[in-house]
Write a structure and sequence with these properties.
Elements: E1 2-8, E2 16-21, E3 32-38, H1 62-68, E4 72-76, H2 88-102, H3 104-107, E5 109-119, H4 121-132, E6 140-144, H5 165-170, H6 178-183, E7 197-202, H7 211-222, E8 227-232, H8 244-263
Parallel strand pairs: 3-4, 3-5, 5-6, 6-7, 7-8
Antiparallel strand pairs: 1-2, 2-4
Helix pairs in contact: 2-4
Length: 266
């Protein structure tokens, strides 16, 4: 594990860093696939190495678990809404993916087999990265309870309010910047040829309504993109309401999906 690797510099801002877990050469001798993890925190806080409350006590932790089964893992910083507004955080993730591509041979990784994995606000950004980045296009996306539409009201989100986390991301109430809100909405960026998506969302999510994942799943299916939507009974945001065993099972499902979709990449 290597912490605090600078991957980008922004004029007038802090250096952007990532943490790397490198599993070593694969048994087949080919470069290892990558999980690019994007943390949550309402776009205004959070740590790059935090997959959520339930995983903080895991030993080994979630990223070490991914490395043990053969994934390199890059946990990345991005500019928060107190530092810059959208599309700055998405630009940062694109920069991180380019950095991994340029350093791929040196690190023994295969950026062409990258799974983007995000939770909450990080799931929103990971969705956008998977849908809008082409060089190289991510192989798959694992999205935990991510916002998908910043244009339409869904409890508790009100696009006309100027004091929400979405408004802070955009720099104004979404209804006042409709074109920007649409470009920041994964459901409106779906296109034919999108990579496979796994969408996991709690049915009782009180912060990001489960309809976000329902609508994104519907849009992906209509575009002909592979998508698996799994709504989790009794689960609130951040998997509150679930047992530790249930969250471990969701992690295993996500890992199985990621493994399946990098195995078939050339």
């Amino acid at each position: 594990m290597v912490r605090g690797v600078p991957y980008g510099h922004v004029d007038g801002g802090r250096p952007l860093e990532l943490d790397l877990w490198l599993p070593g050469p694969s048994a087949e001798g080919r470069p290892t696939p990558v999980v690019l993890f994007v943390h949550g925190g309402a776009w205004r806080r959070g740590r790059r190495d935090d997959m959520g409350l339930h995983t903080r006590s895991w030993d080994p932790g979630p990223f070490e678990r991914l490395a043990r089964v053969g994934f390199a893992v890059a946990c990345v910083d991005y500019r928060l809404s107190g530092e810059a507004t959208f599309p700055a955080p998405l630009d940062d993730l694109r920069t991180a993916l380019r950095w991994l591509t340029l350093r791929g041979e040196e690190l023994g990784i295969d950026p062409g087999r990258t799974v983007v994995w995000g939770e909450s606000a990080g799931g929103h950004l990971a969705s956008l990265l998977a849908l809008t980045h082409d060089q190289p296009r991510p192989a798959a996306a694992v999205i935990w309870y991510g916002p998908a539409d910043l244009t339409a009201p869904r409890p508790p989100f009100d696009p006309s309010a100027s004091d929400t986390m979405e408004a802070r991301l955009l720099g104004d109430a979404p209804v006042r910047v409709p074109r920007l809100a649409r470009s920041a909405s994964p459901v409106h960026q779906v296109r034919a040829g999108a990579p496979p998506f796994l969408l996991l969302h709690g049915e009782r999510d009180s912060m990001v309504h489960a309809d976000h994942s329902r609508e994104l799943g519907r849009a992906l299916r209509e575009a002909g993109a592979p998508v698996e939507l799994r709504l989790v009974p009794h689960a609130d945001h951040g998997w509150y309401g679930l047992t530790g065993t249930a969250v471990e099972d969701l992690f295993r499902q996500s890992l199985a999906f990621a493994t399946q979709h990098v195995r078939g990449c050339v």
